[in-house]
Amino acid sequence: MSSKNMQKLFILMLTVVLGLTLAIPTASAKVPDFNGGVLDEYEYEEVFFLTGYPIKFTGKATVTEKENKNLLTTTYKFTLTSDYGDKLTRNVVYVSDLKNHVTKSQTTSNTTIKSYTEKVTMANKTTYTLDDYQFSQGSVIDNRPATDYYSGNVIARKIYIRSAKSGRTTFNDKITVYMDGRNVGYKNFWGSTDTQFIDYEIVAPEGTSFVTSKVSDSKSRVLEYEQHTPSLSSFVGGHAVISSSNIVSEYEYNIPYYAGTGTIYLNKEKTPKVERLIVPKFRDIAKHWSKPNIEKLYSLGILDESSNFFSPDAAMKKDLFTVGVAKAVDLRVLEEKPTKKNSTKKALFEDLDVKDPNYVYIESALNKGIVSPVNKDKFGAKDSITRAQAVTIIVRSLGLEGRAPTPGYTTKFVDDNKIPKEAKDSIYVASELGLIDPDKKNRINPNEVLTRGKASQLLVRYLNFLESDLKQNYRDDMLYFN
């Protein structure tokens, strides 16, 4: 199931508002169908192998989707040509049955074929017409607060009738293509990657050939600093969000009776989009070591300060850090329409205020298990947050705390015995992900109160992980080391 399809699913599952000050559409990567092709905003390309030789087709590909209750219908239309005058037309309709397992925070999807037509007409008048298509795909999506992770498997069979003329005589024979594949991916506010592997076994009268396609579509947003060069200005620079999209493909083929073996690469990249952000003007961070971190977070609206002073060496409070994490990932928050019934809604804890614009983020973080209260009455909103507490919030938002070893393990830090029990898994995972580093004496200092400057550094590392590290793991590591 494509990540764009999943975006529809998430809308079905929750009524949400996007609370981040920076209003950018959610990124969603999508590998086009199951043919190893690539596309940008102008053109689609794929390689066709049924002739016994690789032939590149290019042209137009369109995708439309319709959602009705728990059924998602996706339609693909391809109109392609080759440099040799060959033509390919293909129309496909898939139907996905979506099931939301609320208590498990997971969604499953089973996809079948509704209709499939395809015809390839070669310049020499030989045609390949799809006669039968059997298809089945199953996917599971693990819905985590900051990122959704998914995996799917596909099995299919295509039967073509090949027609060729010799004089006045038409010869027909059959070519069968067996397909077996899988796809993996993730989606969050800062990016998404959909990576697909398909193995094709092509059984023709001339013999059997094999093709493997690897294709990965990635969309990402990265922050870049833009220098403001005039010296007579009220600011020296600011940040921009660069939104980009890139899809790469690789075909490896072994056609012993004709083309032999080889590899073909395809690549498409959409034109990047630039959005400038507000310029921070704090007066007390000019020479502070965490200035770049603070300015990034302020520009994004993650740290929304009304004062001209940031106080980078003051303690970070629990409520502000929780809100910062929620805004950093555009945490989905439930917006209730005002009614007489909820007009007197009470806060979950006595030290929270429902009238605070940031209350919805803390409430959502609590409901999703990202953050824990002090006790049944108090959240601890104005408590100074420790490194262990901050790291736990971040790792829980990623849904990766379960990647720690079986309980009873010891971390590599010399102050392992000082790590709170409830934070040990998160600190282990954060260290493995490169989100935190020990000091020169190999101490992680879990109970140290984080200053606002250090908390800003941790949040920026978190953003970098969402922007780049997941893409590396789900594209480059999969394509080149799998």
UniProtKB/TrEMBL annotation:
InterPro entries: SLH_dom. The keyword Nucleotidyltransferase does not apply. The keyword Mitochondrion does not apply. Keywords: Signal. It comes from the Bacteria. Residues 345-408, 410-473 form the SLH domain. Residues 1-29 form the signal peptide. This is S-layer homology domain-containing protein. The lineage of its organism: Bacteria, Bacillati, Bacillota, Bacilli, Bacillales.
